[in-house]
Amino acid sequence: MERPSQDIADELRKVDLFTALDPGQLRVVIDSTRVVHLDGGQRLFDHGQPARQFFYLRTGQLKLFRSSPSGGEKIIEIIQPQEMFAQAVMFMEPDDGYPVSAEAIEPSVLLGFDSEVMRGVLRRSVDTCFRVLASLSYRLRQQVDEIEKLTLHSAASRLAGYLVGQVPGDVPLSPGVRLPAPKNVIASRLGIQPETFSRVAARLMKEGLIRVQGQDVVLLDVEGLRARAEG
Fold it and tell me: Which CATH number is 153-230 given?
């Protein structure tokens, strides 16, 4: 794996996890970082594989998932550019395994960080360690909220909430949204079957909330979708 370019520090300073580091600490982490290139469908790591790195996605898209003994697949999260993942492994024993598998949905470029190097940085600064823990705690809270949505809301509420979540803050009244992943991947992420996804999308279209054109979805009634998501 190749080393990142020298200007990567400016990009990483915008990442929540690394805002806790001073310039010297960040340089130590960057010096042990490697660039990873993946083709679509290529695995980054497998469930149970020793967890010795955590990652930042620069371009492309990945899925984190678990496979069942019967061959089924449950997508835990879809990773988008400028997102970190597997950060918690820095607090695990070196030979503990990743709790999920990771696979590129499309050609992707990542940065891989050495967990032991990051632990060394944290051991030398209690204040930095607490700032990093605060960042991880915030991420954990987000994941707990996601679990609540998946367990307490109907399929229609989940899809409506997902679509609204794709809308940037400043948007027109009827924003167009390009689905960031294939529909079967999104369905798995929402905990519903692909055929259920299609039925729910058709229902939202019939209610005048959305219009679907291939991978593009026009949100005709954002407030209506928000109400659906909360119902």
Answer: 1.10.10.10
